[in-house]
UniProtKB/TrEMBL annotation:
It is found in: Golgi apparatus, Golgi stack membrane. GO terms for molecular function: galactoside 2-alpha-L-fucosyltransferase activity. Pfam families: XG_FTase. This is Fucosyltransferase. May be involved in cell wall biosynthesis.
Length: 564
């Protein structure tokens, strides 16, 4: 249910050959015990899938492609949209003043991506520029940083006057799968913007290897000598210095005389009711002057920020189109390092660039046994054929002369396993398509199991999320943060392969997402004002339950024409 918490398999053999029955049973029971009460309490049904199955996906967009000498050519657009300088800064999202050679992807992404139909609001752009100023003034080793750090070293309490120092921070702690990390950094950054804090990112093992610095004048990486760093791994739901536990144990004094110099915010999937009070305005106010907030989360918690009366007006100004939050913040923050950019661009040019259409299929299987699974393969075929993402093959004929209008489609598959790709590729090699279209199927890697601490593994994972985001039509797997990153960066509303239950292909096999936004998997169900439980997916029109997880929350646009 919370895929990322499944124990990471530590050897290839454990995953593929000697899967332990006992472990499987325990995991199955654990899933069962967590899932049943949640489902019973919520009794939330899927929205009628037929309504979005009917929607088309032939969004009119300009396809920009790079010619061999590096100038941009537009395929279907008018001549003026081919001007590269036009979208180099992503509609103003990106700041000038970065050194270009140190991060080629930052300004080259517009050579590989379609121009986004979603424009960042001018208010968002001005907020980003003022955030960059704040970061320059307060980032690592600035005078203000040094001063605020001293407060941390002086001890737990301080007077309110000195607490009012100019710089306050939110420290993101490295945690969980790479997809989750990307979603939570974006969430923490938005929280930082809303609260005038500076975001500092715990580099963990991979952040500096995967992502360029996003801010022009100072690093976003938390210095290694940060005093609390050795405690990061120990922070968990039971930590006595978490805000939730301090509340629960009445340790936070209500007198405004003293404040702790830091608080640990436990916002991971296993957080408790007291931790969830983070999302209530009165609690936000109570720690608004604490200079250091240390945050550990594996969840995209942005949808719940939209339910806060104090954040909502600002959020709507920043994102008049509510479903574009991750799309814009993701494109602003996450630029592949040159090493990863090499993986992306070589693959794109070799296999994807020349096709008339690019189709991404992201297969993430949350089954206990190693795959490939027949019910998953059946589901991939049922979805892509029924929704006409891919053409049928004619198994009777051996040769169909391609009609003049036939096209070449490149299918980019990503999966930890090899079998689904092998199967699909073979189908389109052994048989002609009834349309005469030629289908090429490609998969960059099959890493077999999650290897979070391995450099080359993480680079491939990031490159593949990014490559998926460069496709024209996307099919993703339910519950997968890996797929959420791809859809959000790409500005794509994917076909979601619904989560199979009981080793059975779901019917329908997939449905069209309402929104390109990620799903918040573990939202609170609490009405802060009334202090009672509430169905938070039913309070405002733009925060709804997710298609792929009935208790999750996601942002949707409320305008009737929903820009499809
Ligand atoms: N290269 C590659 N790695 C994958 C793929 N699917 C899962 N992984 C690995 O498993 C991790 C899964 O964690 P996460 O990114 O949070 O995605 P999620 O578990 O699907 O939500 C990824 O970060 C990768 O390390 C895939 O299709 N390709
Ligand atoms: C690059 O290619 C384009 C079109 O293919 C052409 O118009 C342009 O003159 C070329 N520029 C250089 C510098 O070769
Ligand atoms: C792009 O447009 C700008 C102004 O709109 C113009 O100055 C520049 O020459 C154009 N560049 C190309 C490559 O067409
Ligand atoms: C915002 O969404 C509306 C409809 O949902 C659309 O017409 C409009 O073009 C979008 N605006 C931007 C800037 O993306
Ligand atoms: C902040 O402290 C570091 C040493 O911890 C020092 O190297 C740096 O120069 C200081 N910054 C300023 C602006 O004084
Ligand atoms: C799961 O599938 C098996 C047969 O495939 C069936 O006997 C069983 O009742 C199913 N269980 C549930 C909970 O649907
Ligand atoms: Mg994940």
């Amino acid at each position: 249910m919370f895929p990322d918490q499944r124990p990471v398999r530590s050897s290839r053999f454990a995953a593929t050959k000697f899967g332990s029955k006992t472990m499987s049973l325990i995991k199955f029971l654990a899933l069962f015990i967590i899932a049943i009460p949640l489902l019973m309490i919520l009794r939330l049904t899927f929205p009628n899938p037929s309504s979005y199955l009917k929607m088309g996906f032939d969004q009119e967009r300009t396809l920009n492609r790079m010619s061999h000498n590096g100038t941009l050519i537009a395929e279907h657009g008018s001549a003026d949209s081919s001007n590269m300088s036009k979208d180099k800064f992503l509609g103003g999202l990106l700041a000038h003043g970065h050194h270009e050679g140190s991060c080629l992807s930052r300004y080259q992404s517009s050579l590989y991506r379609k121009t986004s139909p979603y424009k960042p609001s001018s208010y968002l752009i001005s907020k980003l520029r003022s955030y960059e100023e704040l970061h320059k003034r307060c980032g690592p080793y600035t005078e203000s940083y040094n001063r605020t750090l001293k407060q941390l070293q002086l001890g737990q309490t301080q007077s309110i006057s000195s607490a009012n120092s100019e710089c306050k921070y939110v420290v993101w702690v490295s945690f969980s799968g790479l997809g989750n990390k990307i979603l939570t950094i974006a969430s923490a950054f938005l929280y930082a913007i809303l609260t005038n804090r500076v975001l500092l990112v715990d580099p963990g093992k991979e952040i500096h290897d995967l992502f360029c610095e996003p801010f022009p004048d100072n690093s976003w990486l938390l210095p290694n000598n940060f005093p609390l760093k050795s405690k990061f791994d120990l922070y968990e739901q039971k930590s006595p210095d978490s805000y939730g536990n301090m509340l629960k144990n009445n340790i936070l004094s209500t007198s405004s005389e003293s404040l702790p110099s830091f608080l640990y915010l436990h916002l991971a999937h296993d957080y408790k009711d007291h931790d969830k009070l983070f999302f209530c305005d009165q609690h936000q106010k109570s720690f608004s002057e604490v200079p250091w907030l240390i945050m550990k989360t594996d969840n995209y918690f942005v949808p719940s920020l939209f339910l806060s009366p104090s954040f909502e007006p600002e959020l709507i100004r920043l994102f008049p189109n509510k479903s574009t939050v991750f799309h814009h913040l993701g494109r602003y923050l996450f630029h592949p390092t040159n090493h990863v950019w090499g993986l992306i661009t070589r693959y794109y040019k070799a296999y994807l660039e020349k096709a008339d259409e690019r189709i991404g299929i992201q297969i993430r299987v949350f089954e206990i046994e190693a795959g490939p699974h027949k019910h998953v393969m059946d589901q991939i075929l049922a979805c892509t054929l029924q929704q006409k993402v891919l053409p049928e093959v004619d198994k009777q004929k051996t040769f169909i002369p391609p009609p003049r209008t036939s096209s070449t489609k490149a299918v980019l598959m990503t999966s930890l396993s090899f079998g689904y790709f092998d199967n699909l590729r073979t189908i389109y090699w052994e048989h002609p398509t009834i349309t005469g279209d030629v289908i090429g199927v490609y998969q960059p890697s099959h890493e077999e199991y999650q290897q979070t601490d391995k450099k080359s593994h993480n680079r491939k994972a990031w490159a593949e999320m990014y490559l998926l985001s460069l496709t024209d039509v996307l099919v993703t797997s339910a519950w997968s943060t890996f797929g959420y990153v791809a859809q959000g960066l790409g500005g794509l509303k994917p076909w979601i392969l619904y989560k199979p239950e009981n080793h059975t292909t779901p019917n329908p096999a997939c449905g069209r997402a309402k929104s390109m936004e990620p799903c918040f998997h573990a939202p609170p169900f609490y009405d802060c004002k009334r202090k009672t439980g509430a169905d938070t997916g039913n309070l405002v029109p733009h925060v709804r339950h997710c298609e792929d997880m009935s208790w999750g929350l996601t942002l949707v646009d409320t305008d009737s024409n929903n820009d499809l």
